[in-house]
Amino acid sequence: MAHQTVRTGYEQLTDRLNRYPQGAPPSDVLYAILEMLFSEREAGLVARLPIRPFTARRAARSWKMPLAETTRILEELAGRAILVDMKNSKGETLYVLPPPMAGFFEFSMMRLRDDVDQKVLGELFYEYMNVEEDFIKALFADGETQLGRVFVQEAVLPLNNGIQVLDYERASEVIRSASSMGVGVCYCRHKMEHVGKACAAPQNICMTFNTTASSLIRHGFARKVDVAEGLDLLAEAQDNNLIQFGENIQKSVNFICNCCGCCCEAMIAARRFAILNPVHTTNFIPVINEETCNGCSKCVNVCPVEAMNLTSANDPHRPRRRQAKVDEALCLGCGVCVGSCDREGIHLTSRPERVITPVDSAQRAVLMAIERGKLQNLIFDNNALGSHRVMAAILGVILKAPPAKKVLASKQLQSRYVDHVLARSN
Q1: pTM of the full predicted structure?
Q2: pLDDT in tens, 234-245
Q3: Do residue 263 and residue 168 come from a single domain?
């Protein structure tokens, strides 16, 4: 009976996490993770927080608690990187509960710490994400608008051939334009280290930017770096054939992970759920030069998603000759294969159709909510209020009805809904 009482707070928190477009399917492993990161009381309180950023005063009303005590709890949670804190235009402190990924799951492993057993936590994360399938599938394979996108490796882009590269497609521009930049331990390789599966790629190379970076730096979860060091770290990542996977938005990108194919969740998902397009690709695709490719397999070895392979060159004079072939349905367009080739046997060209990137995190969240049937949770986002719970339930039933689902499938109507919800939230 006592265990069930403890569980109740974590079940409420799980329900809260799943109101956001990026949720966390319930399982015994998830509850074990949450029990390591939250006390029972904290879980119950966090379950009542709004989805959108909020002030301490709003949290105090939701919790029916004095402002001073509320502020102390919020600061404690921000100090453990459970909440992200930031300033609004009036100088007030705002708080937000980030989703588990990319969010407080990752933050919990971004520095070495002794207040939680990171070996046990890493083992639980591995079980929840790499053995169980529901979380990764829900995170990367539901809907058309995804959490993250790949950045092209700029050094391998051909010059003066008409290819257009926009600023938001460049990881270097994210670094140069960020208001703040922090670097921490790579969550994925840190987790894999605790289960004996980490590769030799650098670990202290996980990049955060802007408001997220400021919060993580302030609370000691990331180390502040300047533009010059940020660009050096980017070059180090690319020298190690790591793929830049970042937030799927154009403005104010909050993270760029430097991913290996063996440890990183996004690359594993890209292989496991390839047909569902779990990761937004770049606007580029590699082309093999059949005259110079000698089938050395270097490009095959560095591809993080197994989109490159060797096939027969069909050369009657050299029947054993092999050459590289790209599977365009799997390819991320990162360009790491181009950099690995020392014979100029591969070059990048533009994809026939441009990949659409949401403007900012608010637009992406609304698009994801529409596609995943959770728009009602963003409109009525304060689950602590009975009126919001009732209205969200009613709207949810309406939006799941066949006529409404058909209307929301229209790209034009989706755009109008996005504009309306964003205007309402400002």
Answers
A1: 0.86
A2: 999 999 999 999
A3: yes
